[in-house]
């Protein structure tokens, strides 16, 4: 099997939802630190313990947003970000890489909400403050327990 590039996301797709067009972005990072949910295969999609640095993740964000035309991106109203674990776990996704992504998202003209998939123990006020600054008036939502919701 060919090795996966640390500078490419697992997936980025734009889908229609009842709440508007959503860009679903799955970043390739180290695996979930918890990795104890028997139903979950997400850690298998991750880099495991291999290093995926902040610059690699920034390159993934650039690649994901560069994959779409300006017209498709202009229609996006929601963005959901997952990473085979917790987006707010800095061991897997350094804050500066996340800030880079949010800064790029902040210029999308119709974007109303960015949802980050995370376990609750990784949520820290100082980091949320930084992320909110990057997003300006765009809403920030934490999707906690995402896999168990309909
Ligand atoms: S459900 Fe979430 S916390 Fe559980 S193993 Fe999967 S990614 Fe980790």
Give a description of the structure.
- The chain is of the alpha/beta class and 150 residues long.
- The chain has a single domain (11-148), classed as Transcription Regulator spoIIAA (2-Layer Sandwich), CATH 3.30.750.
- 27% of the residues lie in helices and 21% in strands.
- The longest helix is centred in the middle third of the chain and has 13 residues, at 54-66.
- The radius of gyration is 15 Å and the shape is globular.
- Bound molecules: iron/sulfur cluster (SF4).
- Residues 32, 34-35, 37, 40, 42-43, 85, 119, 147 line the site of iron/sulfur cluster.
- Iron/sulfur cluster binds next to loops.
The side-by-side strand order for the widest beta sheet comes to: 1-2-3-4-5
Output the number of helix runs.
4
Number of strands: 5
Beta-strand percent range: 15-25%
**Rg from alpha-carbon coordinates:** 15 Å
Oligomer: single chain
Provide a brief overview of the structure:
With 150 residues, the protein is α/β, with parallel strands linked by helices.
Question: What brief labels describe this structure?
Answer:
21% strand, alpha/beta, single chain, binds iron/sulfur cluster, 150 residues, Transcription Regulator spoIIAA
Secondary-structure map:
Elements: E1 11-17, E2 20-26, H1 54-66, H2 70-74, E3 76-82, H3 95-105, E4 113-117, H4 125-135, E5 139-143
Parallel strand pairs: 2-3, 3-4, 4-5
Antiparallel strand pairs: 1-2
Helix pairs in contact: 1-3, 3-4
The structure holds iron/sulfur cluster.
């Amino acid at each position: 099997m060919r090795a996966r590039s640390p500078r490419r996301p697992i997936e980025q797709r734009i889908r229609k939802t009842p709440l508007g067009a959503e860009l679903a972005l799955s970043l390739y990072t180290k695996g979930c630190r918890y990795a104890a949910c028997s139903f979950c295969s997400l850690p298998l999609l991750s880099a495991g313990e291999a290093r995926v640095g902040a610059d690699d993740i920034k390159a993934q964000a650039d690649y994901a947003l560069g994959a779409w035309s300006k017209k498709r991106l202009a229609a996006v109203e929601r963005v959901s970000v997952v990473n085979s674990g917790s987006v707010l776990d800095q061991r897997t996704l350094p804050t500066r890489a996340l800030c880079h992504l949010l800064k790029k998202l902040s210029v999308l003209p119709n974007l109303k909400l960015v949802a980050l998939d995370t376990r609750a123990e990784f949520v820290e006020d100082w980091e949320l403050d930084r992320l909110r600054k990057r997003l300006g008036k765009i809403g920030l939502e934490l999707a906690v327990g995402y896999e168990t919701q309909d």
